[in-house]
Amino acid sequence: MRAMKQLDPKPEVMARRSEIIAGLRRILPERAVIAQAVELKPYETDALTAYRQVPLAVVLPEDEAQVVDVLKFCAAGGVRVIPRGAGTSLCGGALPLADSVVVGLMRMNRILEINYADRYAVVQPGVTNIGITQAVADAGYFYAPDPSSQLACMIGGNVGMNSGGAHCLKYGVTANNLLGLRLVTVAGEVLEIGGAHCDAAGYDWLGLITGSEGQLGILTEVTVRILHAPEGARAMLAGFASNEVAGECVAAIIASGIIPVALEFMDKPAIHACEAFAHAGYPLDAQALLIIEVEGSQDEQADMLGRLREICERFAPVSMRVAQTEAESAAIWKGRKGAFGAVGRISPDYLCMDGVIPTSRLGEVLRRIEEMSAAYDLRVANIFHAGDGNLHPLIMYDANDPASFAKAERFGAEILTLCVEAGGCLTGEHGVGVEKRELMRVQFSESELTQMRAMKDVFDPQWLLNPAKVFPL
Amino acid sequence: MQTNFTPAQLADPEIAVANEILRRCVHCGMCTATCPTFVTLGDELDSPRGRIYLIKDMLESGRDAGAEEALHIDRCLSCLSCVTTCPSGVDYMHLVDHARVHVEKTFNRPLADRLMRAGLAWVLPHPARLRAALLLARPARGLGFLLPGHGMLAKRLRAMLRLAPGAVPRAAPLGRVYQAVGARRARVALLAGCAQQVLAPSINAASIALLNRLGVEVVIPPEAGCCGALVHHMGRHEAALAAARANVAAWMAQVEGEGLDAVLVNTSGCGTVVKDYGFLLRHEDCAAGAAKISSLTQDISEFLMKFYEPVRAAPGLSVAYHAACSLQHGQQVTAQPKTLLRKAGFKVVEPKDAHLCCGSAGTYNLMQPEIASALRRRKLDTLRALGPDVIAAGNIGCLTQLAGDGVPTVHVVELLDWMAGGEKPQALR
Predict the structure, then answer these.
(1) C-beta neighbour count of A346 within 10 angstroms
(2) Which UniProt key words apply to this protein (chain B) (predicted)?
(3) What residues of B are in contact with residue A151 (Cβ under 8 Å)?
(4) In whole numbers, what is the pLDDT of chain A averaged over residues?
(5) Could you tell me the CATH superfamily of domain B7-106?
(6) Is there a contact between A86 and B25 if contact means CB atoms under 8 Å apart?
(7) pLDDT digits (tens, 9 = 90+) for A418-457
(8) Does domain A111-228 have CATH number 3.90.1150.10?
């Protein structure tokens, strides 16, 4: 692994290590403090294992009062703090620093309130994304944003990264489904932002906090909008002869004015890896596959599927199939949602990109990525939310070969630069984290970055909360 | 995921296997969500991904296992829910098996721990010893509250007394061959098991009666004994291999003699291990035989799919089907028991979070009583919410764990046998 530039640990904090741990033990239950070297090791990374750093300690608070105590204690000692949920970040959002205390929120996993009449739920940050839907599904409701890691990822992290998902084409991302937050600032002050109602008056604090990557405070409660589940939904598979043709088909669907609930793209390597995992009946002979889902009454579904068929047929599909049963639909989505992990079947390691481009440029950008793949001699699997133009090229490499990783990093940077040049942006839903930190200059001018840093200064003047993320060092 | 083994380390075939498994893992974290201990304890270290990382670090460094590794590896139920969830196909089972052996070999457990484990390994796989132990425990059964202390030892002893049955069934020695009724359609070996035959001889009795009635001859070679799963999951590799070798020899003699269509297992915890004999014994002289036995092994519900026919009228009972982890995750046998129960005329209902373990997991409910009882409570709550007449499962461990909460518990095969003309299960009378 290439040594990544990292903030230097504060010598005065490192020198007081045992004192800090003793202090944490005083304010927290015994089972909530992890400080043994062997036990800290698994906390050195998240789902971006290319970057690793063992923290000074890990704490697992069980309620808001403990979060307040930990933050007050750390702020008083100038100790850096890394918030962590399920540790599923693909951009190193939960990567520790050597002198940091990781605050894991996994134990704050209770659903506090469900209100069907007013369609909201209040949950703790450690509730999994799918946990919210599971809690309200029997009553016919769901929580709309659905990251592919929704089985495991936690709502606190979803807010921090403003996560998206396959069904965000229709329903919007986390920011569009959020009503309120409780947040502990680094000074230990509890802020209540928004609430179980629409659009609070005044400045849009919710908008500011959502996507702030744990740099402005630690969440202790999240109030989300829950929606009535649709009457039904059906997924359709359309295979195409090339990435570019499939990309053009996506642009045509969007241009037609139809908004399917999801419009997902997989290329050939992804199709094969996912089929091996999910046995969903993906077309193995296609070079590219679109998963298109529509929802509503039977009539609405039939009407939309008919129109989508007509559009797809203009692009000479090699196969088209509509799921006939719920089990078929479930298998189709199981493959798509497990796609990143499934790539583990064909490559020991991957870097997952998250660039966004205008949908009209899909075909062209995909062709450029193919050319880069050949030039770098690294395979790419493309799995992404095509309807939003949110690309997830997975660059496959071998982490046991340092040269391979260095190449993969450069390849990734080139893809993201291409996305920005095509009129898009660096990250659609995963966040900047450490992975895209240095690339922020490709997207933003120095004065724009200075303005953003000024906002962080207001909340966290000592830069203790998740400090080495988002901004170039 | 990156690994850091030296070429010398990789020359060890066991490490080479572990390396391949670790390289498959992409550390995505999906497994954490369906892991019973992560859901209960909320710590990465008690999740599959955290354990994989601990094991990776321990093996790479070549160090002996310490108290921390032992703690978190011991807390793993080996329920293999993570294997069902994993999109990358990480073979967690063989990795954690390897780690358990490493812990057993290199970690010096506290004395009380060692005694407890040695005692369980000495008693459980041997029906006569287990029977004697249960008879001894019976008068003390309700006296667990008198055991002082909050230490692990006291908690474990109380858990043992709680799990000891109120009445120990009369010893029911098994014969060697049970002839098919009418024309013989198949010939199978049945793993009679160890603890099951002591705790609930009715399960083997129902299995044999049902198979015979369906035209299947059942052979139980007396040379075959415990499958080795109990000691295997304690990391006692040599004892596990010895048990496996004995069974392979006993069943291969049948294969080479009168022939076998299948080796049937009606205790899914054992079935998972017998299906893995091919891997377990891959370096032994009997490797080919072990692979043959593994390929012949089926859970009894898999085998019955082709043969089962009910004869009685549907009893109108609602059966809550509890999927044993060894069956649903270890063997990926999910539909068959439910299909058979429906065919038999039962209404089959399933609990929420059916993927979560009930906490039984071999000796887990004795060794980790706190986590096991939290999982038991959670499972029973979801089962009771269904308002069932009876809880059915395909594993004696689960049945023991879930018993005593007011809803009768029976083995799936006992219900199937009843509807095929056998006796009504004792628990329903």
Answers:
(1) 17
(2) 4Fe-4S, Electron transport, Iron, Iron-sulfur, Metal-binding, Repeat, Transport
(3) 30, 33-34, 85
(4) 94
(5) Alpha-helical ferredoxin (1.10.1060.10)
(6) no
(7) 999 999 999 999 999 999 999 999 999 999 999 999 999 9
(8) no
